[in-house]
Amino acid sequence: MKALQIEHLSKTFLKREGPAISDISLDVEVGEILALLGESGSGKTTLLRLIAGLDYPDQGTIAIGDDVVVDDKIFIKPEKRKVGLVFQNHALFPHYNVFDNVAFGLSWLTKQDKARKVNELLTLVNLEEMENRFPHQLSGGQQQRVALARALAPRPEIVLLDEPFSNLDNVLKNQVREEVKKILKKAGATAIFVTHDTTDALLAADKIALMHRGKVLQIGSPIDIYQNPANENVGKFFGKINTLTLNKRENGWLSELGQLASVPQSWEGDQLKIIFRAENVTLTSGKEPGFKGQLVASHFMGDHCLLTVALADTASQSHLLYIKASANHGYKVDSTVTFQIDFARAKII
């Protein structure tokens, strides 16, 4: 069942070169968490605001549940869209305590029912002992949970979160990200959150829509979009990506690595461009067969090192290859390294 359906949505702002978003179509299933991922200016926040009803689209259709909220004749106001909003700065009322912040959107309930509902939500977000505290008495993570409880209170069809983890330090971010995901899943909520952080998207989302210059480049599960990028730009967004150009010859394939005796049988064509990730390259000892290159740089990343290796291609120009190696790989800069590539994990683009 679809919680959200968007068809051919576009929006252009005055004094902006090009559309903010252009001809976007996507669906979100009930109970699914979707990350709108992209750099600043990619259109992700504009898309979120259009779903919320905070901006008018130039064209396109938005349906939330069974209700069309935007088309060429209809525009349903934000407060009528059954959407919960969690803003980047939480937007809690400083003069309200936790209980009253969560209860703010429950004015139609009786006092008794309101108290029961708020207590249920505070239990859900593990703040049941803090109902009388004020926002300034809470940590950033606790404020985030109060804002989420308030958004969930009216039982919205969709919860929209704008950069929910951006104001948190790395240690707190890891904790809050996991808490927010657990809360949304426990509540059975459908959620869409905006982020520029690939880690947030990979760890918190069921599905990722990667946006660039107002368009969705690819949409899919975290593992699919990471392992099977639609193009080089998508691949690069999730970290270093390796590229090779292969030209078919009578006795094999010629590439920046030199002559390749064989490639996967499914590869067809006279010229191919492939991409593969740093973890698909493995260092080997000099005694084993493999390709060779000169180590240009080794960057310590904690649990591993990211190596940059220079190859000499057929035009005698430098071609760089990235290798994910153990933190104690033992090679020094400018030394020769030998490696193998798992071509079965490579993707033709």
Overview of this structure, please?
The mean pLDDT is 91. This protein has eight helices and 20 strands. 33% of the residues are buried. The longest helix is centred in the middle third of the chain and has 18 residues, at 170-187. The chain has 349 residues and is α+β, with helices and mostly antiparallel strands. The chain is elongated. The protein folds into two domains: 2-236, 3-Layer(aba) Sandwich (Rossmann fold), CATH 3.40.50; 240-348, Nucleic acid-binding proteins (OB fold (Dihydrolipoamide Acetyltransferase, E2P)), CATH 2.40.50.140. Helix 3 (111-124) packs across helix 4. Pfam families: ABC_tran (PF00005). This is ABC transporter ATP-binding protein. InterPro entries: AAA+_ATPase (IPR003593), ABC_SmlMolc_Importer (IPR050093), ABC_transporter-like_ATP-bd (IPR003439), ABC_transporter-like_CS (IPR017871), ABC_transpr_FbpC (IPR015853), Mo/tungstate-bd_C_term_dom (IPR008995), P-loop_NTPase (IPR027417).
